[in-house]
Amino acid sequence: LILNDTPFMRSLNQEFTVQFSYSVHFTNGLFKADNPLLTEVVGSDGSKGPRKILFVVDQIVLEKTPGLLEQITAYVEQNPAVFTLAAPPIVVPGGEACKNEMRLVDQLQESIHRYHIDRHSYVAAVGGGAVLDLVGFAAAIAHRGIRHIRIPTTVLAQNDSGVGVKNGVNNFNKKNFTGTFSPPFAVLNDFEFLRTLNDRDWRAGISEAIKVSLIKDAAFFRFIQDNAQKLRNREMAAMEELIYRCAEMHLQHIGGAGDPFEKGSSRPLDFGHWAAHTLEQLTDYSIRHGEAVAIGIALDSTYSYLAGMLTKAEWQEILELIRAVGFDLYVPELAQPGTEPDQPLAILKGLADFREHLGGELTIMLLERIGRGVEVHEMDVELITRAVRMLEAAQYTSAPQIRN
Amino acid sequence: LILNDTPFMRSLNQEFTVQFSYSVHFTNGLFKADNPLLTEVVGSDGSKGPRKILFVVDQIVLEKTPGLLEQITAYVEQNPAVFTLAAPPIVVPGGEACKNEMRLVDQLQESIHRYHIDRHSYVAAVGGGAVLDLVGFAAAIAHRGIRHIRIPTTVLAQNDSGVGVKNGVNNFNKKNFTGTFSPPFAVLNDFEFLRTLNDRDWRAGISEAIKVSLIKDAAFFRFIQDNAQKLRNREMAAMEELIYRCAEMHLQHIGGAGDPFEKGSSRPLDFGHWAAHTLEQLTDYSIRHGEAVAIGIALDSTYSYLAGMLTKAEWQEILELIRAVGFDLYVPELAQPGTEPDQPLAILKGLADFREHLGGELTIMLLERIGRGVEVHEMDVELITRAVRMLEAAQYTSAPQIRN
To answer: What is the pTM of this model?
Structure first.
């Protein structure tokens, strides 16, 4: 063979697509002996079986569901041809604080190593969104990705975070700094777990449904309005419908908007979230993510109204619905002064963090009407400050005054 | 709205595809003032600029390339409209040992945090395959994926590991236990770096080219045979052609074989690697990855011959080429007794690790002729042991006896 003269530069282009698919199921009593769902989901993966499965359970869920570990163990053991427990279920602390513990990521990976979980085995997480994010991250980086089954136990995780493609933990005081985009193998929503929630957790997840209705679907907003009292009164049928429709819209957005791994700067599902993330930090996580999102939605809706984008009538409808479901519109940390010269309010750190996490141009979703979001690339600090003051007033005065 | 009765189960299916693309370039003198490549690659990302870029440099490369940090800095600073250094280049230890240090992952993430590197900024790694794997992993999990530019400096990284989609670090004494599939933004191969390699590192990367030729392309095998002396004599033109063709085949395999993220059990590019990974561990990384791969190829070729799959003539050609390029066929650790009852040889741990890392059914590539691999799902321990003994004999006897 004769070699050609090597030119100064040569280039190759690599292009390929990767197909992802997963199923999201809604059921009652997932681990009851006669519920075939989990067995069918795992059993249809095309391999011979039995597959190893490692369960990781949220301590908070376990405390409210005595016997859960035994129920999981019995369920798996009655289907020995389908799967086998790699080890007794592992219990991890629940709540957002667990995402601040990098050692938990190490410990979960150590378990995946010790119990010889391979890429055709399963790591199943039973818990709230924080535990799913934590376990999902550990599973995503072990062997470059173990099959991960999510079993969300809260409203928030069942209708929003648990059905998506993201995982992560907090690092350097930045929410979700460390994580990946890794679609789960399957999501199994068991409505029975919702009965064990206290009122705050029951309510908290509703804010994400309000959020998605506001930016995408006025009919869904009307549904939530019509069912606000039923939701507040913990009627299961209303909540099941809310979760199903919210999860469906969430999935449609991820799969249908052309950017499931968020390579661009647009993140419409983060409506209301720039302030919410910071409020969680400012309150030392004493308010729930969903409660913070409710305030964030109220803030950005008020801002939309003040900026002349949204009518007063629709703005008032939004605030009334948030209150009707039982959320606060304001906490004192919303008005906390900032420490940086360009941040008169502490929540403005959230805008800076957002710009950095997404990268590129700041892109924030606001509202032009109920059911229709619109993106902007800057926010006015004066208007934000006015919106904060209006929410403070609305929180501490009676409903008619919101109307004024 | 009237709610329907909630059925016992409802399901949603989520399906989407994600498109990935990146470019692989070959040049000389990447950081020379008049080389436009890096400026063009970053400048064509569609954003306004200047973009932040953080360089991470392999200590081993730096020692052999005095002035490299200054050259990088000058190059970036002469193009202020395109990019700006987020910080002075960071230097990390090189060589496989750096992948055993999880604290380096933490430190790199801390730098990404501290210098406010966002998802539209760049982390560029200059170094051997180990440093690229380490930095690539840190970049992949920060903000769920920072744009990563790989600048491989060794033959091995330029023709094989650096052009692929994998990153990772070692954990729990398992190679690449922790990592992700994350395509780079671009790969920039600068042949100038090859001049700084010692003979072992120059040679080591050739084994991956022999590997890919054996399983995919007899004509490429003939090219390597015809150029064996030139490669051994460090003639640049022969090496440049070898790297280009090997990288091209590697890319074609990843993009064209339908499984870029290795969801199945088939991994043809791991031909010869099950023994190689274990040999690296058994020798405490005193032999290079490429040297271990050369032995692994010799072992699996010999096994293929003993199993009746490969002709004696082709088997001999393979061993002769490996020797002609300058590789050993054997190190004493290849015959080291194992500690487990089912592992009479220590290298057999590599088969067990392989089975676990891939998951599912063990799938090993062997040869049916030069240029054509074939997959098997088990290997015979007796035949492996005989192959080891034959390599020992071949190593310590003259070439004609290999022929016998």
So the answer is: 0.92
